[in-house]
Amino acid sequence: MEFDIKDQGLAEKGKLRIEWAAQSMPVLRSIQERFRKEKPLDGLRIAACLHVTTETAFLAQTLRDGGANVRLCASNPLSTQDDVAASLSLHDGIPTFAIKGEDKETYYRHIHAALAHKPQITMDDGADLVGTLHSDRRELLPEILGGTEETTTGVIRLRSMAEKGILQYPIIAVNDADTKHLFDNRYGTGQSTIDGIIRATNRLLAGSYFVVSGYGWCGRGVAMRASGMGAKVIITEVDPLRALEAVMDGYQVLPMADAAKLGDFFCTLTGDMHVLRKEHFEVMKNGAIVSNSGHFNVEIDLDALEGMAVARREIRDFVEEFTLKDGRHIYVLGEGRLINLAAAEGHPSSVMDMSFANQALCVEYMFRNYKAFDKTVYRVPIEIDKEIARLKLASMQVQIDTLTPEQQKYLHSWEMGT
């Protein structure tokens, strides 16, 4: 079987770690059990460009058990867990093309390898797979029935493609599901980002100034966790509504030009480019620690920082020290890439359970209904969102109320007033 991984000898370790993750993914496990019986994806060819983690592995196994022919590649050069890639390729028969730390040429070669079996469904995290299809592999587009997209950055790119009439097949924005962004983005990114920063630096957050750039759901999660560990959190924003919300949540809100002078830690989560740039590096404290938890590494202007530096070295794993002309040091974590996956293991399994349940059910839904879709980006059907929430609550042994007939009638009527 064709695959490209770092070390086949890691397969057994990866197998055990995948089993460990699956224990905390009861919703996806219930879907897997149904898929095994019904085979709703029988014969379907899927190309998946996702972070190659233990949780992703369980998703890939679930799709395979549903009858799909799955090929997997990485959606970020630093997010791959090499033991997981080995286990998927050797134990599960899922061709995987991913090596942690791969260069850009290898990254895109792996995307092309994932497309080699002429997929009918794409699964993306950041839209690089879709972008490659539309730019370099257009001959494969007639085979594509539809796709899914996992993250905010990818949804932004795909909506831009749809608005410009470029997108050639329908895609469901998994990120827009309430059971995804309200939990994965907030609690998953919040915990795993702080985990990555601490693993990389072993620095104390308590008493420090922690600058969070972007107060979307990911930024909210990081701010919440940094504050909970005793940091003095500063928010930077361009959206007045999100900035107002941050103020009401008790955080200090400043322009980055001012926050840059105060911050001990910086974390960007905006989905935009050059959020931290030359004028900010010029005023940062000696020892400032800079990281990113947005999907791409463009949020920090690393070229500008390199141009300002007189020396550059790796002082710890995933920590690069840039020495400036005045003797100050600025530290960049994980090459400016997703710090929660570069230096840690990504989101906890229990929160990815809902995100990947959305992925599995949306692939099934698209396969059944692709003829009814136009070439644009769609939200996750509300019935899928609510079913995942129901299954998650059941797995947590949490019960909720149901409306009485009288309450249902009242909510659907206008006659009853004061």
TrEMBL record:
CDD domains recorded: SAHH (cd00401)
Gene Ontology MF terms: adenosylhomocysteinase activity
Cofactor note: Binds 1 NAD(+) per subunit.
Keyword tRNA-binding attached: no
Main location: cytoplasm
Localization terms from the record: Cytoplasm
Enzyme category, top tier: hydrolase
Domain S-adenosyl-L-homocysteine hydrolase NAD binding residue range list: 185-346
Positions of substrate binding: T53, D125, E150, K180, D184
InterPro entries: Adenosylhomocyst_ase-like_sf (IPR042172), Adenosylhomocysteinase-like (IPR000043), Ado_hCys_hydrolase_NAD-bd (IPR015878), NAD(P)-bd_dom_sf (IPR036291), S-Ado-L-homoCys_hydrolase_CS (IPR020082)
GO BP annotations listed: L-homocysteine biosynthetic process; one-carbon metabolic process; S-adenosylmethionine cycle
Functional pathway: Amino-acid biosynthesis; L-homocysteine biosynthesis; L-homocysteine from S-adenosyl-L-homocysteine: step 1/1
Gene3D superfamilies cross-referenced by the UniProt entry: Adenosylhomocysteinase-like, NAD(P)-binding Rossmann-like Domain
GO cellular component, one term: cytosol
Keywords of the record: Cytoplasm, Hydrolase, NAD, One-carbon metabolism
Cofactors, names only: NAD(+)
UniProt binding sites for NAD(+): 151-153, 185, 214-221, 237, 293-295, 340, 347
EC number, UniProt record: 3.13.2.1
UniProt keyword tRNA processing present: no
HAMAP family: AdoHcyase
Similarity comment: family membership: Belongs to the adenosylhomocysteinase family.
PANTHER family: ADENOSYLHOMOCYSTEINASE
Protein name: Adenosylhomocysteinase
Organism name: Desulforhabdus amnigena
Taxonomy of the source species: Bacteria, Pseudomonadati, Thermodesulfobacteriota, Syntrophobacteria, Syntrophobacterales
The gene coding this protein: ahcY
